[in-house]
Amino acid sequence: MHSKILIIAGMHRSGTSLVTQWLYRCGLFIGEELLTANIGNMDGHFEDKDFLHLHERFLKERKMPDTGFTDKIIPPLTIAEKELLERMIEKKNNTNKEWGWKEPRTCLFLDVYHELIPSAYYLFVVRDFNTTVNSMLTREYKLYIKKIQGKRGLSKLKWMLFKRKSMEGLYREKAEYFLKIWINYYEHILYHVRLLSQSKFMIVHYSYMLQNSGYAFARLKNDWRFSLNYIPFSAVYKKDLLSEVKDISPWIRDLSLMKKARATEQAIQELFEESVKVGIPAGPDQLTGTA
Questions:
Q1: Domain 4-279 -> CATH class
Q2: What is the residue-averaged pLDDT of the chain?
């Protein structure tokens, strides 16, 4: 059975859950069992657990963080691991004429999916490095607070006395680390996009979708022939969930990282502008989402 497949790829905290929720509401099948809501995404992650668990497994086998928070290149998958993916993809093909998935670690394995599913279409969801790193730090802080709240008695007192963190301290400790991860993910995306025909991929930013979801939908429906039913992106967008954004540059000690991040961001912006010429009207400064 030859199915139509959409790979929704993007860095952690980049709006992929929001865009995938919209696609799900439009009628795209995105998995039998999805990752539920938690402190990071109150409406749910809309992630296919089948892909999530395999990606985590592959990372653990290589002694890498199963979160996918890495700035290192992933060693190639073994033949047996590729066969695991092939069987899972075949199973989904056998039960769905059209389907897709979203799972941020997919970005680290794009070369494998390009090999296994050469006919796939790609929707890349992008977000500038400053906003993404802020979002990752905010989520980290919320998880820290939740951990403190879960402790009791003397254990809680010790934790608060010796491990208490302010947001300022968290920026100092982890902003550079998260920026390295952002660069790694976008280098994977940039490399992969350049292997694809422009007719096979689309690049969007979630704030762009607020005004232009109709154009994005037309690409999916008319050009790629997905059987979907349109709903406006505003039906899933919740502005009040956005967190405060600070300039991370004061916390980046390695100035070459900032230079590399800005160059990577510019390359993504240029690809976006090329992508929209295929079927979606461009708007100013789409990567940062400003008008």
A1: alpha beta
A2: 86
